[in-house]
Amino acid sequence: MNQPKKGRIIGIDLGTTNSCVSVMEGGTPVVIANAEGARTTPSVVAFKGAERLVGVPAKRQAVTNSENTIFSSKRFIGRKFDEVTEELKMVPYKVKKSENGNAVFEVNGKTYTPEEIAAFILIKMKETAEAYLGEPVTEAVITVPAYFNDSQRQSTKDAGRIAGLDVKRIIPEPTAAALAYGLDKEHNDKKIAVFDLGGGTFDISVLEIGDGVFEVLATNGDTHLGGDDYDNAILKWLLETFQQEQGIDLRNDKMALQRLRDAAEKAKIELSGTTSTEINQPFITMDASGPKHLSITLTRAKLEALTDGLTDRTREPCLKAMKDAGVTPDQISDILLVGGMTRMPSVQEMVKKIFGKEGHKGVNPDEVVAIGAAIQGGVLSGTVKDVLLLDVIPLTLGIETMGGVMTPLVERNTTIPTQKKQIFSTAADNQPAVTIRVLQGERKMANDNREIGRFDLSDIPPAPRGSPQIEVAFDIDADGILHVSAKDISSGKEQRIKIDSRSGLDENDIKRMMRDAEQHAEDDKKRKEEVEIKNEADAISFRASKALSEYKDKIPVDIASNIQSKIDALKKALEGNDFDRIKSTKAELETAMQQIGESMSKAGPQAAGSSTQSQEQPYAQAHNDMADNPENIEDAEVEIIDDNKQ
Amino acid sequence: MNDNEETSSPEADELAQARAETAEFKDKYFRALAEMENARKRLQKEKQETSQYAIQNIVCEFLIPIDHFENALGFTDNMSEEVKHWALGFEMILTQLKDVLAANGIQPIEAQGKYFDPHLHEAVENVETNDIPADIVVEVFTRGYRMGERTIRPARVKVAKSIKNEGEKI
């Protein structure tokens, strides 16, 4: 079963306008930046004399070498010349009919097939991956649009072979998106929609998923709708507005046009995050009266009005695709958003209008397809299966400590198997037992979390509060089983339980608990702080009482009675919930306590200061942030729960 | 030793299975270790690159107002002496800004009169002419910048193109 391991299988999203490459690394897909530092590469190939350019450099020289610069070659791959007559009108390069009737490109008198052009892009992606991984790459998963027919898929595969890649699988782009969102792990059959609005094309696909099997039920789209159309709409408006205000037409000023085109795209991106943006282009041009500046405010509402017609063009294809798939919007459980344009709020709004629910947008829409391809590559090479063994715990695990606080031991998202140990102590003198309440959740107070287990460690030898050392260990094995043990270090007495930390929780419970924690974060923080104040105050009054009784003979009577009155005041304050009063009485007691040290150092050098010091430690450290390091053993206190109170 | 005999008994099967499993787990363990080590190294490298890119991104944003500044000063050539005098002072401020860039290894890209190079230049416009050799940059719209060997922003340029004679068109 242990086959000799081969190299990694990379995932390539071979797009119409941009391509992207990703690879599984340590169980997670990583998108790889190219030599120019960009995570996506323009799908452009240019020929300049003997030189071949791919990606950004090819795009940069397109204007000056348009007939030898091939972009959108994906629109021609695997197609007959007679099928692409519409596309021909939109490109400045030469496309002709090959002997077998296919569409091929003619550059500098040489013929290139769309497969060869795609291969040049694939080689660039392969080199990008090799530079990153530091090892040769020979295998890949490549994505294609769901509507690609056999001939187009075969041609894409051929392109891979020309590029020196063994194409392990060709997968549809919407399937890749679903993989990136982890939808292959769903066991129940469900129907999803993938809404892909990219740089130049719009695709909508309806898929059926069940037990890791994907079936494309229907696809539709608009082959000429994308981000560039939105940029152009803004550009047109800028030019018109400027002409109205200044009476100057900038359409023939290439430099101004270029500046405005950049500004339009920047404004479009900004308006996904803000509701208004300032487009400032000082000294955009000059006339007889002097320099002219362009300063226009573009609001999100205006942008939406400008591009309304474009966004609306996505509606029909979606409705048709659902009709062809024989589904209604309410039967579609998830909508995945793919392509940079789906970041635009009005596009997301349109999705909601069409399908009646929000689209998923957790994964970068520019990279989601490549990520899905990488995951498929990982599955094929076996690495993903191996990695799935390494699960994470979905919610924080901890125990209840003094004052009803949840003290986390293992933070959520920790990869298992894992082990954490921490030392706790008692909260009262001669405390015979501690109750370990094992909690799960993100809330600060114990009772707001889920109790998943509880046990007592009894027969703790009588000892002053804070001095017994009780080691609590959480050990979660690879199957998610949590072993909790509590051990009194001095007596060696130990108790343990075993809990399936994942039982009884489904994804929704986890999400709800996370949401609760977020919503209550402020309240919880305040309550925890209040408990901490009370705990500190309680500790100080305890320490003061103890010092009084221990050094009765050495403390002058007036000081002792003063301290006693302060202790009483603090204890009284502690009965209520007036935290300002607790704080002030606590401060008073602390000041009074200093008199003990002073009077005793006058009385004799072997003062009791050290005693107070050592007592202080467990309390002080109990409030330290719990470090991740399992060896970093800290003191804190376990709350005792009185049996008769329960 | 007596491998042949062992294969027949159930204990031997179990043993063989256990050995295979051990070998498999050992393999996986070493792979996991190696993967972690490699990931750590890559992380280190990425960290370095990230900080470099971070600087680059900020610099790129600062380049835009610097362009506009430069552009604005370009308009003062035909202005009055008073304006020119002011402009001189602003010119000095611009120089200071550029000095800051230079001190951080960011150099302007030479473009005017050079052969067009798509690694350094971006063509915005062509001009058909037979007076200047083809592919020569005839005008720079916005200055490009490089940081070491990396082009952080290409120069935006107008490029000469030879006028096609009729014979070439088919």
Mean pLDDT of chain B: 84
Number of strands of chain A: 26
| Morphology of chain B | elongated
Q: What is the string of SSEs of chain B from the N terminus onward?
A: HHHEEEEEE
Q: How far apart are the first and last residues' alpha carbons of chain B, in Å?
A: 84 Å
Amount of beta strand of chain B: 15-25%
- Put simply, the count of helices of chain A is 17
Oligomer: heterodimer
Helix count from the secondary structure assignment of chain B: 3
Biggest beta-sheet profile of chain B: 3 strands, antiparallel
Q: Helix- and strand-based class of chain A? A: alpha+beta
Helix content of chain A: 25-40%
Placed side by side, the strands forming the largest sheet of chain B appear as 1-4-5
Report the biggest beta sheet of chain A as strand number plus sense, adding barrel if it closes.
Answer: 6 strands, mixed
Weakly predicted, low-confidence segments of chain B: 166-170
Average pLDDT rating of chain A: 85
- Over the alpha carbons, how many angstroms does the gyration radius of chain A reach? 34 Å
* Main interface by residue count: A-B, 28 and 36 residues
